[in-house]
């Protein structure tokens, strides 16, 4: 009898930054199709528990894991927890990230490290730990969350844009390296999404961003979650190294 493909059985997913926003929407979307989920968070345990509760409504297994993505040992423990509790690591959604707006010449070394350590090294740490398990399995799916600013750049968000551009390059390179092991690596580049990260902008700025978005609205976390669900589904099994732009036409 042929061994069933991974996509035909229950999959186990790790979602970072899953206590709120895009990460939470991704965790719930994956759970809604029957995937077990490890809900990663850094500080807000109560919010993570809410995400877990929403996932459990679909009859799947869901656990929370407190992890600072800049701590490689903590990342390894989360991947080990997933293997121990769920049996495999089939999906990694690298979502956790921070931003920082300001004039480039005024950023400090601490700002550099805060953004790049979280948005770049954090994703690399998780991808490295998870891919070791996936290579042994002979299959798996990694989705890295970048940003449309990583494609086109943004004034007064030089560090954030640069970090997100690095994730696009990382995705394309890792996709080629892991493809022979049956692992897909793709990237989602969200546009202006209605999350806490964008609430640092005043109403005038947000209105301007909406007016520059051809579809004429803010994106919702669920819009990004749908893209992630597609890239980790059987329908996308022949897609790797792609950057899926979810910006409402802001970047074309």
What descriptors fit this protein?
alpha/beta; 252 residues; seven-stranded parallel beta sheet; 7 strands; disordered N terminus
Structure description:
With 252 residues, the chain is α/β, with parallel strands linked by helices. The protein is built from eight helices and seven strands. The protein has helices spanning 21-32, 45-56, 72-86, 109-137, 149-152, 158-178, 203-211, 221-231; strands at 12-15, 36-41, 62-66, 91-94, 140-145, 183-190, 243-246. The protein has a seven-stranded parallel sheet, with helices on both faces. Helix 1 packs parallel to helix 2 (45-56), helix 1 (21-32) packs across helix 8 and helix 3 (72-86) packs parallel to helix 4 (109-137). The longest helix is centred in the middle third of the chain and has 29 residues, at 109-137. Residues 1-7 have low confidence and may be disordered.
Outline the fold blueprint.
Elements: E1 12-15, H1 21-32, E2 36-41, H2 45-56, E3 62-66, H3 72-86, E4 91-94, H4 109-137, E5 140-145, H5 149-152, H6 158-178, E6 183-190, H7 203-211, H8 221-231, E7 243-246
Parallel strand pairs: 1-2, 1-4, 2-3, 4-5, 5-6, 6-7
Helix pairs in contact: 1-2, 1-8, 3-4, 4-6
Q: How would you sum up the major sheet?
A: 7 strands, parallel
Question: Biggest sheet, strands in spatial order?
Answer: 3-2-1-4-5-6-7
Q: Could you list the spans in which at least 5 consecutive residues all have pLDDT below 50?
A: 1-7
Could you state the order of secondary-structure elements as H and E? EHEHEHEHEHHEHHE
- The percent range for strand residues is 5-15%
Q: In angstroms, what is the radius of gyration? A: 17 Å
Count of extended strands: 7
């Amino acid at each position: 009898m042929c061994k069933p493909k991974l996509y035909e059985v229950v999959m186990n997913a790790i979602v970072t930054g899953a206590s709120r926003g895009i990460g939470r929407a991704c965790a719930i979307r994956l759970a809604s199709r029957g995937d077990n989920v490890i809900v990663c968070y850094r500080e807000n345990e109560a919010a993570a528990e809410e995400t877990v509760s929403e996932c459990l409504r679909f009859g799947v297994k869901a656990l929370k894991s407190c992890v600072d993505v800049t701590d490689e040992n903590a990342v390894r423990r989360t991947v080990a927890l997933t293997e121990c509790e769920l049996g495999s690591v089939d999906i990694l959604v690298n979502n956790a990230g921070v931003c920082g707006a300001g004039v480039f010449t005024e950023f400090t070394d601490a700002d550099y490290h805060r953004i790049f350590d979280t948005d770049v090294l954090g994703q690399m740490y998780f991808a490295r730990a998870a891919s070791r398990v996936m290579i042994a399995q002979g299959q798996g799916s990694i989705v890295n969350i970048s940003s449309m600013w990583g494609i086109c750049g943004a004034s007064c968000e030089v560090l954030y844009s640069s970090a997100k551009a690095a994730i696009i390059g990382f995705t394309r390179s890792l996709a080629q390296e892991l493809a022979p092991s049956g692992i897909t690596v793709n990237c989602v580049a969200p546009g202006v999404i209605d999350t806490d990260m964008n609430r640092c902008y005043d109403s005038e700025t947000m209105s301007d961003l909406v007016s520059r978005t051809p579809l004429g609205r803010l994106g919702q976390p669920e819009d990004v979650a749908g893209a992630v669900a597609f890239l980790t589904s059987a329908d996308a099994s022949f897609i790797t190294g792609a950057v899926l732009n979810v910006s409402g036409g802001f970047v074309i």
